[in-house]
Design brief:
466 residues; FAD/NAD-binding_dom; 14 helices; five-stranded parallel β-sheet; alpha/beta; oxidoreductase; EC 1.8.1.4; Enolase-like, domain 1; redox-active center; 3 domains; FAD/NAD(P)-binding domain
Length: 466
């Protein structure tokens, strides 16, 4: 078969790229190693984790907070099998939805492992060993990422699990040790804490959520500790010994010192992700990668080999599904002769715990490092009417604006529904808005969005409700 474009991988970047290319008139095919489309995100990442986050939040709400609302339902009982079925229903609905969209847009699908056999040639190797050769003008590598392994620690997805295994536990562990205080570790740790696990989070650095705003990290850690999580920061894991009933985790101070052991029923290794390029044949065709194994591309996502492009987790930048989607759209438009573009300064990042954490743009640490003078406006949810009425007063909104121009440079939110609240400021930043622009925009009352407006007012030291 001959195509204008063959996309290897149908995660958020790959399938979106393929659909947009087809919309623009390119004859397009996708190659997917899984039986279902959607990549890590839909199958074993974003979607199933959000389903369990939602379900576990509902369980804790019924268990601890319904009585405060005047709702007596007795003591709720956990049916983990049914909860896992609920999660799988969300996965199935989304993966089938992608399959439908590909068919609707007349994108041909091939299931098997894709390998770049040469310029304009993609070999599809099926599980039964059969193969098929696709001819194409352009190839897009959209193979995503894989979990980062901890040297000397074997992941068996039973006692020592990655994020994939942590989504499939058949029973709630009494003690869960999470290695890594990043987004994945804190999200999945919070799921199992709500369902009854005693959760200890071990982090090599001296803070949670590395890379996000420092003040946000500190307050968020306090909130999670108040909920019942235990943190061991500035601590490194030196070994995990698996026995018949659980594991023993050996740790010591990051800078060296006396070792100690922590017993666990399950150990979750969540120390990041790495680009997935296994079996693609990059070495054979000469596609260049960097020291981190990422495919090197130019500003138009082209590799050093003519006709081969790459997007998403496999290239530089934040490993976020929505970043990959935007790159997929941009690349499809570039290949169709249009001017695709991604504004990397306005890519939101969200932690889907409760409360949520969301950010977009620069952190205070980054602005200080770059020598940029800025003003800060902060507003706590304890002073927001809707948050008070809902009993969700943890957290705050912080807006960072340029001292001279008042242009919004970064926004950081800890609070209920932060993932949706961040969208307003992302749009504002896309249009180069000032804090004054947000402050002068009428926000509905009573809503959590008023905290965003008040933070914008606070940039000029004129917040009303605090």
């Amino acid at each position: 078969m001959s195509y204008d474009l063959v996309v290897i991988g149908t995660g958020p970047g790959g399938y979106v790229c393929a659909i947009r290319a087809a919309q623009l008139g390119l004859k397009t095919a996708v190659v997917e190693k899984r039986a279902t489309h959607g990549g890590t995100c839909l199958n074993v990442g974003c979607i199933p984790s959000k389903a369990l986050l939602h379900a576990s939040e509902a369980f804790e709400e019924a268990n601890k907070h319904f009585g405060e609302l005047g709702i007596d339902v007795g003591t709720p009982k956990l049916d983990l099998t049914k909860m896992q079925a609920f999660k799988q229903g969300g996965v199935d609905g989304n993966t089938k939805g992608v399959e439908f969209l590909l068919k609707k847009n007349k994108v041909d699908s091939y299931h098997g492992r894709g390998r770049i056999a040469g310029a304009g040639r993609v070999e599809v190797i099926s599980d039964d060993g059969g193969n098929q050769m696709l001819e194409t003008k352009s190839i897009v590598i959209a193979t995503g990422s894989d979990v980062t392994r901890l040297p000397g620690v074997e992941i068996d997805e039973k006692t020592v699990v990655s994020s994939t295994g942590a989504l499939e536990l058949a029973q709630v562990p009494k003690k869960l040790v999470v290695i890594g205080a990043g987004v994945i570790g804190l999200e999945l740790g919070s799921v199992w804490r709500r369902l009854g696990a005693e959760v200890t989070v071990i982090e090599y650095l001296d803070r949670v959520l590395p890379g996000m705003d420092g003040e946000v990290g500190k307050q968020f850690q306090r909130i999670l500790a108040k909920q019942g999580m235990t943190f061991k920061l500035s601590t490194k894991v030196t070994g995990v010994a698996v026995a018949d009933k659980g594991a023993t985790v050996t740790v010591e101070p990051a800078q060296g010192g006396e070792a100690e052991t922590i017993e666990a029923d399950v150990v979750l290794v969540a120390i990041g992700r790495v680009p997935y390029t296994e079996g693609l044949g990059l070495e054979t065709v000469g596609v260049a990668t960097d020291e981190k194994g990422r495919v090197q591309t130019d500003s138009h996502y082209a590799t050093n080999v003519t006709g081969i492009y790459a997007i998403g987790d496999v290239i530089a930048g934040p490993m976020l599904a929505h970043k990959a989607e935007d790159e997929g759209v941009a690349l499809a438009e570039i290949l169709a002769g249009q001017s695709g573009h991604v504004n990397y300064g306005v890519i939101p990042n969200v932690v889907y715990t409760f409360p949520e954490v969301a950010s977009v743009g620069k952190t205070e640490e980054e602005l200080k490092k770059d020598g940029i003078a800025y003003k800060t406006g902060k507003f706590p949810f304890t002073a927001n009417g809707r948050a008070k009425a809902n009993g969700t007063t943890d957290g705050f909104v912080k807006i960072l604006a340029d001292t001279e121009t008042d242009r919004v440079l970064g926004v950081h939110i800890v609070g209920a529904d932060a993932g949706n609240l961040i969208a307003e400021v992302a749009v504002a930043m896309e249009f180069a808005a000032s804090a004054e622009d947000i402050a002068r925009t009428c926000h509905a009352h009573p809503t959590l969005t008023e905290a965003v407006k008040e933070a914008a007012l606070a940039v000029d030291k004129r917040a009303i409700h605090v």
